[in-house]
Amino acid sequence: MTEQPISVMVVDDHPIWRDGVARDLAERGFDVRATAGDAAAAVRIARAVRPDVVLMDLNLGEESGVEATRKITGELAGTRVLVLSASGEHNDVLEAVKAGASGYLVKSASAEELVAAVRRTSAGDAVFTAGLAGLVLGEYRRMASGPDDAPKLTERETEVLRLVAKGLTARQIADRLVLSHRTVENHVQSTLRKLQLHNRVELARYAIEHGLDKEPG
After folding, report:
1. With b meaning 16 or more CB within 10 Å and e meaning fewer, what string describes 178-192?
2. For 32-62, how does the pLDDT look when each residue is reduced to its tens digit (9 = 90+)?
3. Which residue from 109, 88, 129, 101 is spatially nearest to 24, judged by alpha carbons?
4. What gap in Å lies between CA 27 and CA 54, rounded to an integer?
5. What is the phi-psi region of residue 66: left when phi exceeds 0, alpha when psi lies from -120 to 50, beta otherwise?
6. Inter-residue contact 159 to 177 (CB < 8 Å)
7. Looking at the DSSP assignment, which residues form a beta bridge with residue 104?
């Protein structure tokens, strides 16, 4: 059975850049379902075509790509947003991630880096231009500081969190721990609630920042 190509939508207010990125991705086998030139159109079209990945610029005129990202990730559970922006400003990066973006790439990235980033984003990975991942992790460390009221995870939740940090899917974790897929998902959801995080990408970042991706010594 042939594997379905990753479906993509490209959002950018510069038509030449937008069409160029869409063409590059289509030539590399991606299913480019749509393009959009502003935030309102991005949200409206994303609802209609439901792509696996939205490549999102931040500077979209009246309404920011951050707001479009928030709406898309809030409404479309199966769609991930990868920001592709000319800006590497720390505030822009953090605002995009807080809005639900799975990753952040600057426009100076090569076509090969972009293709790899889209594939990894579709697979559920957090993808950042070199140097920006540390910034995001630092922010999560700051937000998570406060040992007195640190959330208490069960031994099993910690074990599942460690495997999430290693990049395993829920099904792979279930096989590793000899649990049902549903049980693993329940542990993941419980951990998200306790840590006040929103998705598996944030959960992985939290785990990596707290050293949970390493085997216990």
Report:
1. ebeeeebbebbeebb
2. 999 999 999 999 999 999 999 999 998 887 7
3. 109
4. 17
5. alpha
6. yes
7. 83, 128
